[in-house]
Amino acid sequence: MKRILFIDDSDDNLNLYKIYFKKNDNLEVELCNTPHKGIETALNNKFDMIFLDIQMPELSGFDVLKTLRDNNIHTNVFALTGFSDQDTISKIEESDFKNYLKKPILKKDLIRIIEAE
Amino acid sequence: MKVLYIGENSSFFNSLEGELLQGDYELISTNLDDELIPLLEKSSLIVIDNEFSKSNDIDVMKSILDWEKKRGKKNIPLLFVSDSDDFEERLNAFNSGADEFVDKFDIKSIHLKINSFLRPDLLWQGLNTILVEDDKISAKFISHVIKSKGAKVHHFLDGISAFEYIKENPQVDLILTDHIMPNLTGIAFVKKIRNEIGLKNVPIIFISSVQDKVEILEFYKVGGNDYIAKPLIKEELFVKVNQLLEIRIKSDILKAQVDELEKLNRLKDQFIAVCSHDLRTPLNTILGLSNNILTEEDDVKEIKEQVSVIDNSATDLLSMVNELLDFGELQLKKNDVELEKVNIGEILKNCIRKISSFNTKHIAMSFKCYGPEDVFIMGNRGMLTRAFNNIITNSYKFTGESGQIRGLMESKDGKVTLSISDTGIGIPDKFKEHIFDQLSGAGREGLEGEKSVGLGMSIVKEIVDKHSGEIELTSREGKGTTVKFSFNMVKA
Asked: What ipTM was assigned to the predicted interfaces of this complex?
């Protein structure tokens, strides 16, 4: 049983991930719709991997990642990005993300990453 | 004084009317449905809409020129205004008898041109000039010429006192200075003004009885703009001062236009950023689920559920795109709105009827009328429908089950007021002040998750402005919102 956390400020996106994993009994999926709720949940629970939206106006994915690392959360984190320009990709690659996916996020891409962990 | 506008562009008319009112001019208009001659008799100047004149069968210029010939008096100034600055159009206009050809959107320049024809004594109104001249007789003469065109003159007998004054009051439009003066020569004075105070753009005219070429050259080198020799000739002074001041006025106008353009450019960038982000979100769902259905999902029940979610997202996307298109269309039609006599009560009633038809929230909708039921205004049916729909849709989005939406119409003293009130969640104070600005609380989600890009209210305001109407919004959080429109009525 793998435990996965999604942090994305769009309820529509979270709903999408919920639909993707609706019938998957091997996964326990947790969804947080604000970066702060996401940080709190990550700090108080153990997850096998975390998927993090980059473009959040309240607190960016980069800032959330830093906060997690500063609090000794060393879980593998994957970036989900709506922008695929070179600057954003470079910044993602330079940060401590294990990998990244460009939006629109397809189910098969998520499954591929999850099964590889 | 009356100025006659021959044309049909009502938003141009409104802008020009407002500007000319400040100069005590009354702007009247005709689209040639009425008798032209009586209007010509009343007017001191005619503004002819180039686009209107071209599209019209009646030869406007011929009628005017015939009338002028008949009455034998001095010709009335004819000012052409146009959307485009085409050289050929310009030439045609002047050939047909125009005295001037101006850009239609340059309202301030039009006002200035009208002033130059009708109020030459106000040509330089509002301009501040500094005169540094120790010869009192020359000073009196120069002051008189400049004051006769409406400008203000501050006279100083020497450069030092003028310099001290300008340091404290740098809002100067023109400086005239002599050279041979006590304490500070004209050339040294100009140097100080340009370098110590840093006024690089104020025009400076050098007045001198000295014909020394070396000295004149020195004057230009330190930053002077023009030179007039004594003894002064009134016409020469007038022409030189006029040229420099006109440049100054024009550059002020240009600067204001550049500021406006910069503001619009920033708004456009903001706009694109907000929209592309908002528009992308439903696409994530549409593409993600479509791909899932195409590659993996076999269960028909699941497929149907997912397609339903796709359908919702597509609908969200459509409503956002429509909002953008409405806004874009309004911007394009900025200056050409077609108005006709419309029954405003009918339009509002229809909008309420339409939303009643898919009222799944059991909201009580009503329309009441105090006074006559058939009230007419000059309006654009499509735009008014859009404006009312935007407000009613908002009311619907933000009002809960079994709430109320009430439409009301009242007419009094030539004005009709229509209001749309709801018992919804209201608008927080922090949004109220800028509610009609573009991209204000950009897209609050409705009670059932309805999406928008946040342009709805600014679209409504634009429409009301185009109808020369007024709009007022009152709201209390937790109680509800009321939007009130008022327009001028016309006879049935």
From this structure: 0.90
